[in-house]
Amino acid sequence: MKLLDELVGMLGRQYVLTGEDAQSYLVDWRGRYSGQAIAVARPGSVQEVAELIKWCVANKVPVVPQGGNTGLCGGATPDDSGTALVLSLGRLTQVRSIDTDNDTMVVEAGCILQTVQQAARDADRLFPLSLAAEGSCTIGGNLATNAGGTQVLRYGNTRELVLGVEVVTAEGEIMHGLRGLRKDNTGYDLRDLFIGSEGTLGIITAATIKLFPLPVAQCTALVGLRSINDAVSLLSNARKGFGPALTGFELIAGACLHGVVECYPQQRIPFEGESAQLPWYALLELSDSESAEHARERFETVVGDAIEAGLVVDAVIAENISQSKALWHLRESIPLAEKTFGKSIKHDVSIPVSRMAEFVETTNAALQTYFPGIQHVIFGHLGDGNLHYNIARGSQYSEEQLLGMQDAIYELVHESVYQFDGSISAEHGVGQLKRDALPRYKDPVEMKLMRRIKQALDPHGIMNPGKVLASRK
Amino acid sequence: MKLLDELVGMLGRQYVLTGEDAQSYLVDWRGRYSGQAIAVARPGSVQEVAELIKWCVANKVPVVPQGGNTGLCGGATPDDSGTALVLSLGRLTQVRSIDTDNDTMVVEAGCILQTVQQAARDADRLFPLSLAAEGSCTIGGNLATNAGGTQVLRYGNTRELVLGVEVVTAEGEIMHGLRGLRKDNTGYDLRDLFIGSEGTLGIITAATIKLFPLPVAQCTALVGLRSINDAVSLLSNARKGFGPALTGFELIAGACLHGVVECYPQQRIPFEGESAQLPWYALLELSDSESAEHARERFETVVGDAIEAGLVVDAVIAENISQSKALWHLRESIPLAEKTFGKSIKHDVSIPVSRMAEFVETTNAALQTYFPGIQHVIFGHLGDGNLHYNIARGSQYSEEQLLGMQDAIYELVHESVYQFDGSISAEHGVGQLKRDALPRYKDPVEMKLMRRIKQALDPHGIMNPGKVLASRK
Prior knowledge:
2 copies of one chain form a homodimer. The first copy, chain A, has helices at 2-11, 19-22, 46-59, 113-122, 139-145, 152-155, 190-194, 228-242, 254-263, 292-308, 321-332, 334-340, 356-370, 399-419, 438-441, 444-457; strands at 16-17, 39-41, 63-66, 85-88, 95-99, 104-108, 125-126, 162-169, 174-177, 202-210, 212-213, 217-225, 246-253, 280-288, 314-317, 344-345, 348-350, 375-381, 386-392. By secondary structure, the first copy, chain A, is α+β, with helices and mostly antiparallel strands. In chain A, strands 12, 13, 14, 15, 16, 17, 18 and 19 form an 8-stranded antiparallel sheet that branches. A 5-stranded antiparallel sheet of chain A has the order 5-6-10-8-9, sandwiched between helices. In chain A, a hairpin with a 4-residue loop joins strand 18 and strand 19 (386-392). In chain A, helix 8 packs across helix 10 (292-308) and helix 9 packs across helix 12 (334-340).
């Protein structure tokens, strides 16, 4: 109780949660991970975060930083020892400044991503990071996990959208690194070391992020394809023909679209006959700095050429914003439709684009050998080499059977990813979920250097122990 | 002699240079830094680099890695103790692979930048890194210093152009990190830690770099402006109007252009009357994925609007490639013209774009107060907030007087940069030149973490000691 009293002394009673009040912070949003903690601390300033960390060092209390608690790998959930402090950044919600001439904005870690997007839009600017959880995830969590999303093809991952960070170190010091500079070669890149480290090296409390001009128009097309190889060739042509105006290139298996319309009959696949029965489709998005007409014209030229070259079987180009939205809606409904068909086994993998076709063919075949009749639910950001390579039970297996097969399927897919020079975590991070798999697929020298860095920056081992790397004994 | 014999035993006599043969490796290309070494080792493979480092650890021999020896801060020159080994990467010149579907290329550290650009072009792709030394600098040196250059506005610094690195660590192990993935969230960002660390943490021996489609057309415009503030507003409008097709935005003081035509009478400023006497000019470059006509049309629209809004006084849009080249030639001739007017004091600084006008005004005024009559030679990459803020002696001072004032001018400018939240090294790095200034302008917590990382990754302190950070006693 001494520890709890001290926490209350530091923050005030209302910002130290225990019991029922703490519950939602101790379980991840999908209910897959749960743990215990001394309490949940909700500091109201960077200074309070720093004080808390100093207190944790002095009392040997492990810290689990938490943003919107929307992670997919258990990175923000404490273990069940009950010895840790969950440190929620939820009260650090200031947009500290917007500089439209410098195209930068300084935001605190607890800002909801959607709030950040809106603040940019209010200043006639775009902050392009966009992902399914944007209504509840925080920019701090996005930074901690180097989140990806749907705009990576053009704008990069979260890492590429950040110019500077403010960090409370594992010893409770404040690193003032909120520079708004596009060029700064004064020493080691500490910014990128903290980004993606999942709270295991320090706590990012604020960041200077990049803003972009809002596109004048966006236009979407859906094209039907005979193979992934054709999709890869089309991607190459589209990058050439559209340049950086190409902001999306999503690959979708035909079966996914059929699943969507089966589940949501009010949606429809905008093709007829043979064109509606193709094995693969691609959704392309253009962001134009001229006009909607110009975007459509560009689509007609580049997609027209691809049809003539035999790469594309059929194509629909949205004629207005609502048609564009309907096409995106098909894509976005896939995970929801997937859910209504029961539990599935999900993989967030990346593969060099050039090896994608071979990876899918080889892995599908291996899965059918060991788990005949299993169903493939394949879609993803082809432009980034990022595939959501998911497996559904189909009519062959029960939910229980699928769960029983889960570990073997994970292993088969991860081994295949490894063979094809891919990554077992493209955009979700490591957390607890993939921690023990990591040493198997990562270069041993990289693992060694990661442990050295952990030791150097978190000498007391209090920062989110057991995440990314196994705890030191 | 024992050490030398062992080196010869490892590499063969022809690849261990001493005496006259070593001389050009012991002085930087501008002759500002020189040192001594046991020898210059020229390993022919990554394995040999690793062996050499292990040997250096065993014999406590400091290592100075060297690429094309074109650095500007003395980062690749040994000290004068004669105890170090210069390790030249010049024989690691393989383009190991090109993957046009994945838009990546694997190159070894010793490849000349121009060779890398050409290899990309031969595969119908663009590798956009471009800088003055491209005919002799190596990609390894570009990586070690996170080089900038003229295309940063659109494509980013070297850091942003790299997906993976292969590194020989400070203990002679090989880190296999040549991934060709655009998304990979499996642990700490070691890649970006080595990039920009100037050979003080390990040796980058190869990299997987990003390729882009070649633009279909490029077009250039020169516009005359009344103030830096107008230039900043124009930059904002141009980013909005052109989107990512805007690949260059260079700010040039009127005095620089007049210096160029005075020095090279065959060149001319393409304006008449008042328009030729403006205080500032900007050079804009568009890279178009449609056609040269389209690029010109876009220029006419956006620059036309800026003239109507009173932001731009006058403008010339190139009508063909040779006119574009002539405009760029004016810009590129500034440093050469500068040289013919005698020694100058150069600063490679960055400032938030929004504070650029105020920085120049304040700093110019302070310099005139302390050094009346001194001349300002100001130009740079406004789009990146990167200014070459140079000082010439004019007719007021002799070369000797200027040199005598040098340290005071450095300090005045750096202090001003600091006041305006800028960086004292935008793209050239730290090396020896700015090492001792760094702790004055960098956050003390950042300095502390940098030293921790140095200690963790280079525990024997053999990697390029005395560069970036002071050597440990």
